[in-house]
Design a protein that fits this description.
- The protein has 112 residues and is of the alpha/beta class.
- The protein has one domain: MTH938-like (Hypothetical Protein Mth938, Chain: A, 3-Layer(aba) Sandwich).
- It has three helices and eight strands.
- Strand 1 and strand 2 form a beta hairpin.
- The chain is globular and about 35 Å long.
């Protein structure tokens, strides 16, 4: 189970306090140090090549907007892209992965 904890993001017994990339295959800590507002399509280039159906962006304790160009880039690739607070992104990830969907999540533990 992936969830937002007071001290970071809890996945099983591990707690991460850095931005994570989470897929069914791997958890990648320290994915980026960039604030959400500075993310670009280039930041997601490697992830896009793995062809997820949907990418979730968890923006910390509160929802924030992703850059417009990032939203458009995912649309051009035919990949769903949803932005929400990290707790909601973790819950959504769990539901989608439980359905067998190809989903990836970039999760910020705190506002960055």
């Amino acid at each position: 189970m992936r969830q937002l904890a007071a001290d970071g993001i809890r996945i099983g017994d591990a707690v991460y306090d850095s931005t994570l990339l989470v897929t069914a295959e791997a958890v990648t800590p320290h994915w980026t140090e960039k604030p959400v507002e500075r993310l670009t399509p280039d930041d997601f280039a490697e992830l896009v090549t793995s062809a997820p159906e949907v990418v979730l962006l968890g923006t910390g304790a509160r929802g924030r907007f992703a850059p417009r160009e990032l939203v458009f880039a995912f649309a051009r690739h035919g990949i769903g892209f949803e932005v929400m607070d990290t707790a909601a992104a973790a819950r959504t990830y769990n539901v989608l992965i439980g359905e067998g969907r190809r989903v990836a999540a970039v999760l910020y533990p705190h506002a960055a």
